[in-house]
TrEMBL record:
Identification of the protein by name: Halogenase
Molecular function GO labels: FAD binding; oxidoreductase activity
Domain of life: Bacteria
SUPFAM superfamilies assigned to the protein according to its UniProt record, in alphabetical order: FAD/NAD(P)-binding domain
Segments forming domain FAD-binding: 22-250
Organism: Dulcicalothrix desertica PCC 7102
Keywords for the protein's UniProt record, in alphabetical order: Membrane, Oxidoreductase, Transmembrane, Transmembrane helix
Membrane-spanning ranges: 21-39
Phylogenetic placement of the source organism: Bacteria, Bacillati, Cyanobacteriota, Cyanophyceae, Nostocales
Family: Belongs to the flavin-dependent halogenase family. Bacterial tryptophan halogenase subfamily.
Length: 603
């Protein structure tokens, strides 16, 4: 139990050792740790919080695709939509294709688009702007500071956290609670011996990822390809992502920091009053450009690639003629960042969790607690959910002066339910990629079970950790039933076609029931799909009704922008709604195979 309501926020220095007192110390100053700190500060304003960051400044990491709940989290942290529009790339939704080694076609395109405005983010920029927002809320960030678990004491009665700076100075932080937001490093679960990568206990597999950055060298002659979505190419055993980012890597840190502060100083002003991206670049010596993050994620138990990361990437490109044709339109960025002279990145056996997600005086959130797979961006989407749920229990524990493990019972139940659901979802998605029909049905189940849930959301709330009805018992039970069909079918050596038929027999009646409900009919869900009607039937459309939002190319800078705005946030060009071409041309052929050119000798 705690002896005081709150430690005084003081500093003492003795013989090269600094001592500081906080209510809560967070390990890691990335988006998940920052969101936790921001939510806790909002719930309990008197709480003193410090974020520990081992790096001196935000570094370059793989670009990320965000979904609606993550953007709501950004806004809750103090980022307005005008700020997001100027720093990051536009995202209108998700797009999927299917292929396999024996075809040169991209088959059965699926998308869900135009629900709301989201973004593709570059992590260096995101961390820089988020760190500035929490500093302005009175939250300390101790950079260049490494936490040393073995030298620290962590108990329900209070913590003494020993840290070391890059200059060798030792810092002792006294806190009631320490929260691990260190990402895949999982510092506290590893320290307490509860970290694990035991996918067998979940009756599933792990995955490996190989990725790099590319630039477009010639247009891809596929309808909708350039519409600002996260593009997924699925195939038996894995999938591929294409994420178009706004990269600021050519802008020095000091210049980028000035741009960030200038934007945040505008507060909640209307969009047209903000300086445009081009004006900011001119005033502060910045430079942005489009870059494409391209990666492959493969089932580890089916990964037959060898050699270097680049060799492994090339293996799957050459294995799939349609992917080889796609990649012929892109060129590799050999030195993507100043400190990254090698172009290739990898993550192997990425999924993990922990035997427990909290203990006396500590808890772990985000990727430090659990991670399943990058497909459809669960890391940020549900990582913010773990932050919120842990913040709720933290606030209650601080008020009660009890930060024992029992205080985090609700959070641990949430995290345990979440990783179980995520791994089942990942399992069914990857197994569905064995056949084009099961791929379509499993994705349709995901879209139609979740789309109703997000349409009425505006601000981040207590229901966001459960977004898309993902943790609804009915959805979890249905996913488990689909997983059983796949696993038993594979054990019985059934053909992928037969398994797909059994999956369809389970999912199709559910979609028919959902889309026939009067309240769902009233939503006109077909507005959000180019290939589904209001009742969830897959079909080609002559045109798509406008969704909640619509994105059009600016006639000046050629980048996509929300057509509801009066001017382009990038270049300031007035948006002429009458003269603008549609954001994407409607289908003009009977099937994607009809418009996708036959590839006889991919290059």
């Amino acid at each position: 139990m705690m002896n005081t309501e709150m430690f005084a926020h003081n500093v003492q220095t003795q013989q090269n050792n600094t001592e500081k007192n906080y209510d809560v110390v967070v390990i890691g100053a990335g988006p998940i740790g920052i969101f936790y700190a921001a939510m806790l500060k909002k719930m309990r304003p008197q709480t003193t919080i410090a974020l520990l960051e081992r790096k001196a400044k935000p570094g370059h990491k793989v670009g990320e695709s965000t979904l609606s709940t993550t953007v709501r989290a950004f806004r809750a942290m103090g980022l307005s939509m005008p700020v997001l529009r100027r720093l990051f790339g536009k995202k209108a939704g998700l797009r999927f294709f299917h292929t396999h080694p024996d075809t040169d076609q991209l088959e059965k395109e699926i998308d869900v688009v135009d629900i709301e405005e989201t973004f593709q983010v570059e992590r260096r920029v995101l961390e820089m702007v988020l760190q500035e927002t929490v500093r302005r809320r009175g939250i300390d960030i101790l950079t260049n500071t490494t936490f040393i678990p073995k030298a620290s004491t962590i108990t329900a009665a209070g913590n003494q956290l020993v840290c070391e700076t890059a200059t060798g100075e030792h810092i002792t932080l006294h806190s009631h609670l320490v929260v691990d937001a260190s990402g895949p490093a999982s510092m506290l679960p590893k320290h307490f011996g509860v970290y694990r990568k035991n996918m067998e206990m979940y009756d599933t597999f792990n995955c490996n990822a190989y990725y790099a950055y590319f630039k477009l060298k010639k247009d891809v002659a596929l309808r909708f390809w350039e519409y600002p979505t996260t593009r997924h190419i699925t195939f038996p055993g894995g999938w591929m992502w294409f994420i178009t980012l706004v990269s600021w890597q050519k802008t020095p840190d000091a210049n980028l920091a000035q741009i960030v502060k200038r934007l945040l100083d505008e507060s909640d002003a209307p969009d047209p009053t903000y300086p445009t991206r081009k004006e900011l670049e001119a005033e502060y010596g910045g430079q942005s450009e489009q870059m494409i993050s391209v990666g492959l994620t493969i089932r580890a138990d089916q990964d037959d690639s060898h050699g270097s990361i680049g060799d492994r990437f090339a293996h799957y490109v050459k294995k799939h003629p349609a992917i080889e044709w796609l990649m012929s339109h892109y060129e590799l960025v050999e030195e993507p960042y100043p400190e990254q002279k090698f172009p290739w990145f990898s993550v192997t056996n990425m999924a993990h969790d922990a035997e427990q997600f909290a203990g006396d005086g500590w808890c772990a959130i985000g990727d430090a607690a659990l991670f399943s797979n990058p497909i459809i961006s669960p890391g940020m989407t549900f990582g913010t959910g773990t932050s919120y749920m842990a913040a709720c229990d933290s606030a209650a524990g601080l008020d009660r002066k009890d930060l024992s493990r029992a205080t985090f019972a609700k959070y641990e139940t949430y995290a345990r339910t979440l990783i179980d659901a995520l791994l089942d979802d990942t399992d069914t998605l990857y197994r569905s990629f064995a056949h084009v029909d099961s791929y379509e049905r499993v994705l349709a189940n995901k879209f139609f079970s979740g789309i109703e849930d997000i349409l009425e959301r505006t601000e981040y709330s207590a229901t966001d950790p459960y977004v898309w009805n993902f943790l609804h018992p009915d959805n979890m039970q249905r996913i488990k039933a689909v997983k059983v069909i796949f696993q038993e079918g594979e054990k019985a050596d059934k053909s992928p076609t037969l398994i797909a038929q059994e999956v369809s027999a389970l999912i199709t009646p559910y979609i028919a029931e959902v889309t026939s409900r009067p309240e769902i009919v009233a939503l006109r869900l077909g507005r959000f799909f180019n290939f589904y009607d209001d009742l969830g039937h897959y079909a080609e459309k002559a045109s798509k009704e406008r969704g909640n939002v619509k994105f059009m190319r600016c006639s000046s800078c050629n980048l996509f922008t929300d057509d509801a705005l009066s001017s382009c946030p990038v270049c300031g060009e007035p948006i002429n709604h009458q003269n603008q071409e549609p954001s994407s041309n409607p289908p003009k052929q009977g099937a994607i195979a009809a418009i996708f050119p036959l590839i006889t000798s991919p290059t």
